[in-house]
């Protein structure tokens, strides 16, 4: 969409509105839902879905959202949701809040939730960092950022999710001892992630261990292309 400037507007008057637009850390993707996805969305979204609107700072009451008080894991960019559903099924004592912009992925995760009878998953649609602003400090047990868009071109690095300001916000939402777990198949982004995460004064890197998560579609693609998989786990001090 192209912005329209009225004849009375001046460049100086238009500048604040442009500056207020958030820098997107994702490609806005659309896609057609299959009948399975559409049926699951129609049946489950009214009860399990949360729409994220830019600029909305209404606090999200996590116990009210899930119907219980339990540790919450935030899954940023869950793709088609297969890994999220698998983790939630294997971890019923924690709740999983997944946020995504890809419509078929949202439909697929909802379908999996219905098919597996999961009660500990909720699904948000929109910008993940806009959602993070609405969560209370110390409210998360873990944040997962698995295979985010690497934005490989230098001029697009400003769009990467793992940047100092975003990391500081994510860390504030973790409770003490909570874990920020990132993974990527791009070596240059892995190095950048390591530098950024290690520089945050409120995080401490955890020893390397097997990644302890289901393999994702993006991980399989990276491995098939010969790219190494890097997992980075940090805890809030």
UniProtKB/TrEMBL annotation:
Q: Where is this region: Disordered?
A: 1-21, 201-225
UniProt-annotated binding residues for S-adenosyl-L-methionine: 75, 100, 127, 149
Does the record carry DNA-binding as a key word?
no
Q: Where is the composition biased (Basic and acidic residues)?
A: 212-222
Concerning InterPro entries, the annotation shows:
SAM-dependent_MTases_sf, tRNA_(Gua-N-7)_MeTrfase_Trmb, tRNA_methyltr_TrmB_bact
Q: Which SUPFAM superfamilies match?
A: S-adenosyl-L-methionine-dependent methyltransferases (SSF53335)
Substrates-to-products reaction catalysed: guanosine(46) in tRNA + S-adenosyl-L-methionine = N(7)-methylguanosine(46) in tRNA + S-adenosyl-L-homocysteine
A GO molecular function term, named singly, is: tRNA (guanine(46)-N7)-methyltransferase activity
Q: What is its EC number?
A: 2.1.1.33
Source domain of life: Bacteria
Supply the enzyme class, top level. transferase
Q: Which protein are we looking at? A: tRNA (guanine-N(7)-)-methyltransferase
UniProt lists the gene as trmB
